[in-house]
Amino acid sequence: MLQQGGVLAYSTESCFGLGCDPFNVAAIRRVLALKARPNHKGLIVIAASLAQVRPLIRPLSAAEEAELARYWPGPYTFLLPASPRVPPLLRGRHDKIAVRVTAHGEAAALCRALGTALVSTSANRAGQTSLKTAQACRRAFGAAVLTLPGRIGGSRRPSTIIDFETGRVLR
């Protein structure tokens, strides 16, 4: 389904997320349309491991990887220099991409089972409240999205977003 450009709704740390193959431009367009999200903002990608993040980013030094290992898996999304392979729609108007190695067991298991990182943006229309249940996702998106059962984590707030290069906290 992902290879054919499908979109998933799945549980994450604080809400359900909408996700797709991060290299499938048609699927990214579907996610943006479902959310009514502007193209210039870019999207977060989650993974089960740094190995799943590597195709999305420029190579890191051993020291940089060690620094990221202090935070991952965990609720920290880092802006890292995007690989030239990253579709512009995924990173928006930025030259960096937002990535996180998730500590949410179900989301990490999904990435492991699929063998890939996933786009992960809150399941809601832009500006509206994030959806917290599979049932709410099915009501909101119907057959346009394959909604997986699951339980969100205990986090009340979305992940912290940090520019890795500058250390600046953006959210």
Tell me what the structure shows.
It is found in: Cytoplasm. Residues 1-171 form the YrdC-like domain. It is an enzyme of class 2 (transferase). This is Threonylcarbamoyl-AMP synthase. The structure is a single chain. This protein has six helices and nine strands. Helices cover 26% and strands 20% of the residues. The radius of gyration is 15 Å and the shape is globular. The longest helix has 11 residues, at 25-35. A five-stranded mixed beta sheet has the order 6-3-5-4-9. With 171 residues, it is of the alpha/beta class. The mean pLDDT is 96.
What's this entry about, in short?
With 171 residues, the chain is an alpha/beta fold. It has helices spanning 25-35, 50-53, 62-69, 88-91, 105-114, 134-141, and strands spanning 8-11, 16-19, 44-47, 76-81, 96-101, 118-119, 121-122, 146-147, 160-163. It has one domain (2-163): DHBP synthase, CATH 3.90.870.
Spans with pLDDT under 50 lasting ≥5 residues? Answer: none
Number of helices: 6
- Here the CATH topology equals DHBP synthase
Helix content: 25-40%
Order of helices and strands: EEHEHHEHEHEEHEE
Mean pLDDT: 96
Lay out the secondary structure.
Layout: E1 8-11, E2 16-19, H1 25-35, E3 44-47, H2 50-53, H3 62-69, E4 76-81, H4 88-91, E5 96-101, H5 105-114, E6 118-119, E7 121-122, H6 134-141, E8 146-147, E9 160-163
Parallel strand pairs: 1-8, 3-5, 4-9
Antiparallel strand pairs: 1-2, 2-7, 3-6, 4-5
